[in-house]
Amino acid sequence: MENSRWSRRSALRxxxxxxxxxxxxxxxxxxxxxxxxxxxxRVPAGLRPGGAFDKKLGKLAEEGKLSGTVLLTHQKxxxxxxxxxxxxxxxxxxxxxxxxxxxxxxAKLFTATAIMQLAEQGKLDLGQPIGAYLDGFPSAIADAxxxxxxxxxxxxxxxxQTSEEFRANAGKWTSGAAMLDGIxxxxxxxxxxFTPGTKSSYSNSGxxxxxxxxxxxxxxxFYDYVRKHVFDAAGMxxxxxxxxxxxxxxxxxxxxxxxxxxxxxxxxxxxxxQYGSPYIGTPAGDAFTTAPxxxxxxxxxxxxxxxxxxxxxxxxxxxVPHAKANAGGASAQAYGPTSAxxxxxxxxxxxxxxxxxxxxxxxxxxxxxVVVFLFNYADRTNPPIQELxxxxxxxxxxxxx
Length: 401
Hints:
- The longest helix is centred in the C-terminal third of the chain and has 16 residues, at 385-400.
- The strands form four sheets. The chain has an eight-stranded antiparallel beta sheet, with helices on both faces.
- It has helices at residues 52-62, 108-120, 139-142, 147-151, 164-169, 176-188, 204-218, 222-234, 244-249, 272-275, 291-302, 309-316, 385-400; strands at residues 68-74, 77-84, 86-88, 93-94, 101-102, 257-259, 265-267, 288-289, 320-321, 329-333, 338-342, 345-354, 357-364, 369-375.
- It is 31% helix and 17% strand.
- It is of the alpha+beta class and 401 residues long.
- This is CubicO group peptidase (Beta-lactamase class C family).
C-alpha cells in the first residue's frame, strides 16, 4: 500500500459539500484544557490557540452549552486541542483530551471501511444483491437491494429503531451476536419504503445489513473483524464497541447527557428504560473512541493505509448527488462518508447525533487538515454544531485558497 502522505496526485476526486453532522446540540459547564500548540505552515490565526474559534468554544462552554473535546490537526501536527465539561457529572470527572466518547453514526465509516476491504480482496461484489450473501430476506428485497444501495442510503430500507419489536427486545440482548441477530430479525421482516435506487433515505437498517454481510463474508463476528482490520490497523488503541456495563464502570468513558422535558440535565446511560441504552453499539453506530484515535483513523483512511489507493478512491468518491447543496459547492453521498468540494477543495467525513451525543470527523484532503468534534451533551438546542463546522471550514478553506 502507499504511505500516508497526501498529495493532489493521490487525493480523491470527490463530489460535493454537505452538512456532515447530524443536527444536534450540546451543553455543559467546565473549563478548557490547554492546547498543545500550533502547526507550522498556513494555519489561520482564527484557528490557533486564543483565536476566534478558540474563544467561541470557551464562551459556549462558559455558558453551559458545550461539553466534550475538540481536536484540529494540520499536517499531522496539533493546532488546537480543547476539552470542556464533565465526562461524569455525578462523580465530577472532567472531560480530557483522551476521554472516550460514543460516536453515534460516525461509526458507519468503520463498517463501510470493512466492506471496502472485503471488496478489494474479491470476497464480495458491490453490485451484487444482498441475497448473494445473506439468507432470510424475501426475494423482492434479496434480489433487488445491492451492496451499493446499502452504502449510499438508496436501498429503501427504513430504520429498525422505529420497530416495536426492536424496542421491546433491545434491552434483552446481552452480547454483540445477540444484538446483531436480533436487529437483523427485525430488518428481514421490514418492507422497503421505495424501489431501491430511485430515492435516497438515510438508513440505519442498511448499515446493520452491511455489518451482517461483513460477518458472513469474513467468517468472523462483525465486532472482531472491525477491531482487527480497522481499529488495530489504524493504530486506534483506545477504540472499541464498549458494552453498557463497561460504559457504566469505566471512568475514561464519557456519559451522554441530554435535557429532560422538565429542563433537567439527565445521564441517559443511567436511565435506559426512558432513553434507551443498548448493550453494545451496532454497525450503524456507537463505537467509542478518543479524539486522537479518530484523527488517526481519518488520516489512515485518506492515506491508503486501510484500503489500497484504487478502492479508497472508489469508497470516497461521491456517488449520489444530494438534491440541495450548501453554499460554495455540491454535495454527494459516497460509500459511507459524505464527499464534498467547496471552493475547489475536497472534504470527506461523517457526523453523528443521538440523545446525549454529537460528533464529527471532517478530513480536508487538499489542505491536510483533520477536524474532530466529540461532544457528550446534546439536545435540540445546544450547542450550534453546524455553526462550529462552518467556522472551521471557512477558515481552513480561506487559508488554503
